Amino acid sequence: MVYEQQHIKKITIIAAGSLFLAAAAVVFGLMCNGDYSNTYHLQTASAIQDKNTTTSTTSATTNNTIQLSTKEVKEVYNWIDTSNGASNPTLKVFANASNIIKIQNPTDTKHELIIDTGADVLPSSDDINPNSSGQLSFKPTTTGTFTYHCAYHPFTMKGTIQIASSNSKP
Question: How many domains would you assign to the chain?
Fold first, then answer.
């Protein structure tokens, strides 16, 4: 009887261990199969233009250039349209055209402009160090409304970017 109880305990332990290993193998298999590995949680959103928002448009040349700056007011950072002083402006660029966003950073911290396109690799200015400048150059192939933000201040440095058909240039 004692032998049977010990034997049952060993079988129970082996069964529980096997079940655990099987579950681990299933999870590992799913991860290796691509269902859960390399999953990107991308911020993709369309914003509705606020009636207080200004639109920054570009010239009708092949290279469209927008000038932005960064600004800190009471420890809150914003993107500023240098042509009209608008805070976190709606930017208008063109599909199938070279677009450049030039950025001045007179603040004491770094910034990085990122366009939330939903692609695996997002257009980015890379880090723009304090008291320096940088730029983001890109040539979108699709039209639509997307968002942009700062990698370091995503809740206060954000806005909308409209990608229009190159046929709609002024």
Answer: 2
